[in-house]
């Protein structure tokens, strides 16, 4: 099947730079996607966008180029609840990728076990209206209670302005809860203002809540962009991400978000994006927690040594 990309679609950056920052050995890119390829894994009829292809082999070659060891592949909404492309990538990764699935309440226990064997360790609940149609909260809660015994967690994606309305549902979830992209703060607002304050309170008062400090390219208003050799990009996002890393160093994850769906302004050079990491996690200890210890604890707990 051939697909026509959404008009204005920006393809992933073809020839990324080598980062100046060297990630510690064993680093995990804990948020990335695969798209298709559409001829093998057709995009879902209910999708809100049609992307370019972004295959597992292209993802794995980016992983190696950037100096990462592992990936966490998050089911993208353009594949709906058809997890085949993501699962195919997990199976081809030689144990170096884990996955986050999208499932419906109709999924059987056997199918859940199959996903677990392939390397899935969580489900994603998406509340961003431009990406998905609303799933009733009772259905989501039922899914959460079924995946909890597998040791899985729930990844949530929402916009900062929607947190007040969603917070009661989030705090009722029975698993670890991982927030995508810091809950998408409006970085034009003050880092010590009420909106981001609510997010910090949410994390402070709920020790099961983690955050990905990812996607500065999606959140930044004033740049500069991670392009043309700019190794100090997205200044306006730094205080938000750094506050989270320094306040909750054991509950943060980082990911490229490759292939960066739905960006409208520019496509970042992923090598320069990696150079954002030492600006938000300034010490080797914070970097090791963010890139190795935390994702290993969540996604490969069986591989942890007693000291890590
Ligand atoms: O890549 C992301 O995390 C963010 C997305 C896309 C997405 O979540 C999806 O398609 O599932 C976005 O904001 O458009």
Automatic annotation (TrEMBL):
Keyword Hydrolase: yes
Superkingdom assignment: Bacteria
Pfam families: Amidohydro_2 (PF04909)
EC code: 3.1.1.57
Entry-linked CDD domains: PDC_hydrolase
Keywords: Aromatic hydrocarbons catabolism, Hydrolase
Gene Ontology BP term (one): 3,4-dihydroxybenzoate catabolic process
InterPro entries on file: Amidohydro-rel, Aro_Compnd_Degr_Hydrolases, GLI/LigI, Metal_Hydrolase
Catalytic activity: 2-oxo-2H-pyran-4,6-dicarboxylate + H2O = (1E)-4-oxobut-1-ene-1,2,4-tricarboxylate + H(+)
Domain Amidohydrolase-related: 28-299
Protein name: 2-pyrone-4,6-dicarboxylate lactonase
Organism ancestry: Bacteria, Pseudomonadati, Pseudomonadota, Alphaproteobacteria, Rhodospirillales
């Amino acid at each position: 099947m051939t697909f026509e990309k959404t008009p204005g679609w920006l393809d992933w950056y073809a020839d990324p730079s080598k980062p100046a920052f060297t990630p510690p050995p064993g680093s995990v890119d804990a948020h990335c996607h695969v798209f298709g390829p559409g001829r093998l894994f057709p995009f879902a009829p209910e999708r809100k966008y049609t992307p370019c292809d972004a295959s597992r082999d292209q993802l794995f070659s980016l992983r190696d180029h950037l100096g990462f060891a592992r990936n966490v592949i998050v089911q993208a909404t353009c594949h709906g609840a058809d997890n085949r492309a993501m699962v195919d990538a997990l199976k081809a990764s030689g144990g170096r990728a884990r996955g986050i699935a999208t499932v419906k309440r109709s999924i059987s226990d056997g199918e859940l076990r199959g996903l677990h064997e392939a390397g899935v360790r969580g489900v994603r609940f998406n509340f961003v209206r431009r990406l998905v149609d609303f799933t009733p909260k009772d259905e989501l809660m039922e899914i959460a209670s079924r995946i909890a015994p597998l040791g899985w967690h729930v990844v949530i994606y929402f916009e900062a302005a929607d947190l007040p309305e969603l917070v009661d549902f989030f705090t009722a979830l029975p698993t670890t809860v991982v927030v995508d992209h810091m809950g998408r703060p409006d970085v034009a607002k003050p880092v010590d203002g009420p909106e981001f304050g609510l997010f910090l309170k949410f994390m402070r008062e709920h020790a099961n809540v983690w955050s990905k400090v990812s996607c500065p390219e999606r959140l930044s208003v004033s740049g500069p962009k991670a392009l043309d050799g700019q190794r100090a990009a997205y200044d306006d996002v730094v205080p938000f991400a750094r506050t989270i890393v320094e306040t909750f160093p054991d509950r943060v994850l980082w990911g490229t978000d490759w292939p960066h769906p739905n960006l409208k302004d520019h496509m970042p050079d992923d090598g320069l994006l990696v150079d954002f990491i030492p600006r938000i996690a300034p010490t080797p200890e914070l970097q090791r927690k963010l890139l190795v210890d935390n994702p290993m604890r969540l996604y490969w707990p069986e591989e942890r040594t007693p000291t890590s």
